[in-house]
Design goal:
Structural class: mainly alpha
Number of helices: 13
Distance between the termini: 49 Å
Number of domains: 2
């Protein structure tokens, strides 16, 4: 991480904390759901953030291939398991990484029969065949070398964790980025390497209390290129800088969105302003639904200038207060305005 990147990152993290963005209702849950939806999207899932939320919270499946929905469900289980485990600050072992990978691939992993032997991706077993980065791409480490290399990685990672100054936020992020890069470069599994490596990165960030990094589906080409360039030039700094810049970019976006929707008042000092803003948003929703009762939450979020998570929370509160109600199914139904009085 460059000094310029470190300075920008620390400033944005401090601003994020001062504003109290992470203190919003259900922030941690929805942030996790976003991480999961985008991590699977990078691997080909078309399940959106909103669809993932409905799947996780209400068990409502999207009109998407079942394997894509299972990818999201499995990754959620893997994150929840890992987040509980990492708080014990135990050594990271090959066996634990295998367990982690087995949860990532539990319902979508295949069974393999190769010259090197049989193995199961669903059980997180290490690959017994050689793989390359796409058709005609560079080959990863020979499968015979994976166990010893993975063991060495765990030993080095644990050593770095013990030596880490947890108050140095840049060092925490650098460690997590390094672990991500090393694990995905070893490529221990036949499938699920990207998801598991991003998961490990996030777990290390949670372990030391820093805001986890999201790799959005829109970041895919930049992200993959940084991994490729780092391997090609044998320079991990290319990947470290890329991940730093992505986190900076996402922090700026989240802060800008928050300021637009709360009129820039810090958390803890904005109760009246937030109430006023909420009333304005409620009125915007009512006016929009008067014009078109069939508007989706996504469309309403765009019209109101807030996130999809924000519009979902707002409309849930409006339903609880009896201001609006849903008539008919999610697809093909519409919204009905019951009482406008509580919006003022």
């Amino acid at each position: 991480m460059t000094q310029e990147g470190k300075t920008a990152l620390i400033q944005l993290l401090n601003q994020h904390q001062r504003l109290g963005i992470s203190e919003q209702i259900d922030f941690k849950k929805f942030y996790l759901y976003s991480i999961i939806a985008h991590s699977t999207a990078i691997e080909g899932s078309t399940v959106t953030e909103i669809e993932a939320q409905l799947l996780f919270d209400e068990g409502i499946g999207a009109n998407k291939p079942m394997i894509e929905q299972l990818m999201n469900l499995d990754l959620k289980v893997a994150y929840e398991y890992g987040m509980t485990w990492i708080q014990r600050h135990e050594d990271i072992t090959v066996e634990w990484l295998i367990t982690l990978a087995s949860k990532v691939m539990a319902r979508t992993g295949g069974e393999y029969s190769t010259i090197g032997g049989n193995f199961s991706a669903a059980r997180g077993e290490l690959r017994k065949l050689n793989v390359s980065a796409g058709l005609g791409g560079p080959s990863y480490l020979s499968y015979q070398k994976v166990p010893s290399r993975l063991q060495a990685f765990c030993e080095e990672l644990n050593s770095k964790r013990k030596a880490l100054d947890a108050t140095d936020l840049a060092a925490v992020y650098n460690l997590s980025f390094w672990a991500h890069y090393e694990l995905v470069t070893i490529h221990p599994w036949a499938d699920g390497n990207g998801r598991t490596s991003r998961l490990l990165m996030n777990l290390l960030q949670w372990e030391y209390g820093v805001l986890p990094v999201k790799v959005l589906k829109e970041d895919k080409s930049v992200y993959i290129q940084a991994l490729s360039d780092s391997r090609k030039h044998e320079d991990i700094n290319i990947f470290l800088d890329c991940m730093t810049q992505l986190h900076i970019q996402h922090l700026r976006h989240d802060i800008d969105t928050y300021l637009r929707t709360t009129e820039g008042q810090p958390f803890g000092k904005k109760e009246k302003t937030t109430q006023k803003t909420t009333q304005k948003t409620t009125q915007k929703i009512i006016e929009a639904l008067k014009s078109n009762p069939s508007l989706s939450r996504v469309a309403l979020a765009e019209l109101c200038g807030i996130s999809a998570d924000g519009i979902k929370w707002q409309m849930k509160k409006m339903q609880e207060k009896g201001i609006i109600r849903r008539v008919g199914p999610d697809k093909g139904g519409h919204w009905e305005i019951v009482e406008e009085g509580d919006a003022h």
